Amino acid sequence: MGVEIKIEHLTKSFGKQLIWNDVTLTMPAGEICVMLGPSGTGKSVMLKTLIGLLKPDRGSVIIEGTDIANCSEKDLYEIRKLFGVLFQDGAMFGSMNLFDNVAFPLREHTKKSESEIKRIVLEKMDLVGLIGAEYKLPGEISGGMRKRAGLARALVLDPEILLIDEPDSGLDPVRTSFINQLFVDLNAQINATFMIVTHDIHSVRVVPDQIGLLYHKHLAMFGPREMLLSSDEPVVRQFLNAQTVGPIGMSEEKDATELEAEKDMDLPPLPPIPLQLETSNGIPRKSQRPPGEWCRLNGVTPPPGSFRADSILSASAAKSSD
C-alpha cells in the first residue's frame, strides 16, 4: 500500500536563482498524482527533492513520520527503500541486457538468491509486457520498451512510492496511451503512491487522481483532477486546456503589453471533463472516485458534456469549430 507524502513550505534555490518558494501540498496514499508546469519551473527538481537527492533551503518532506529534508543519512537510506524511480530515458546500463538491468537493484540492495532474483525479475518484466526480451540490450529496443524496462526495474523492490519523470518523452501518441494504461493498471495492482511529471495534456486529463501546477516560482494549485479541470484560475485554465490566452507566453510569463492586448478578449469555453481512464479489467482502483463526485460535493457546475464517453471527441470538435 502506498504512503502519504506531506510537503510543507518547501523552498529551493540554486545560488541566487529561486526555483520555487513555499510549496505546500499533500499527496494522498495510493493515489496517482501529476505535477505540471511550463519548462524550467523545477518539476524534475521537485522529484529529486522528494527522494532526498537535493536538499531544500527551507521546509519539510514528511514520509511515514520522517522529515527527509532534515533527517540523518541513515534514516534517509531507510526511507529511500520505499521509492522506485522511472527516469526520462529509462537510464539503462548500455552494456547489460534487460534482465540484468532489472535485476541490478536486487543484486545491489538485497541478499536474495539468483533463483529468487530470476523469479522476481521475470514477474516484473511480465507485468510491463517484456517477457521474451530479457536478453536484448537497451540499444536493440525501442524507446518505449526502454521505458517499460526502466519501469520494471523501478518495481523490483516493491516500492510504496513511484516517481516517474516525463514518461511520454520521445513516445508517439499510441505508445503514450499504452504507458498511461500501464500506470493505471499498476496503481490498481500495487496501490503505490504515484508522482508523475509530464507535459502531455491528454494524459493529465484522463490519468491522475490529483493534479499540481508549478508556475512563476510557486505552486499555483494542487488538488483533485476535477477541481483543476473545472478551474477558472487563469494560469491553470490556460495550461490544462492548451490555450494561448492567459498569463503564460513563449517565455514563462507574458509582458504587460501582451496582457493588455488580451484583456478584452473572450476566453474559449472550458472543454468537457473526460471520464478518468479505467483499469483494463474495469475494476475501479481504490483511489478512483465516481465521475463528477468532486463537482457535486463542492457545488461546481462542470463544463457541458463532461463525464461522457465521447467527452474527448466533443472537446476536439468544439476546439476545431472556434
Write the layout of secondary structure elements.
Elements lengths: L4 E10 L2 E11 L4 E5 L6 H8 L7 E6 L2 E2 L5 H8 L2 E4 L11 H12 L4 H14 L15 H13 L5 E5 L7 H18 L2 E5 L3 H6 L3 E6 L2 E7 H5 L4 H7 L15 H7 L30 H5 L13 H11 L1
Parallel strand pairs: 3-8, 3-9, 6-7, 7-8
Antiparallel strand pairs: 1-2, 1-4, 4-5, 9-10
Helix pairs in contact: 3-4, 3-5, 4-5
Textual characterization of the structure:
With 322 residues, this protein is α/β, with parallel strands linked by helices. The protein has a domain of 221 residues: Rossmann fold. 35% of the residues lie in helices and 19% in strands. The strands form two sheets. It has a six-stranded mixed β-sheet with strand order 6-7-8-3-9-10. Helix 3 packs across helix 4, helix 3 packs parallel to helix 5 and helix 4 packs across helix 5. The protein is globular and about 70 Å long. It holds the Pfam family ABC_tran. This is ABC transporter ATP-binding protein. GO terms for molecular function: ATP binding; ATP hydrolysis activity. It comes from Nocardioides cavernaquae.
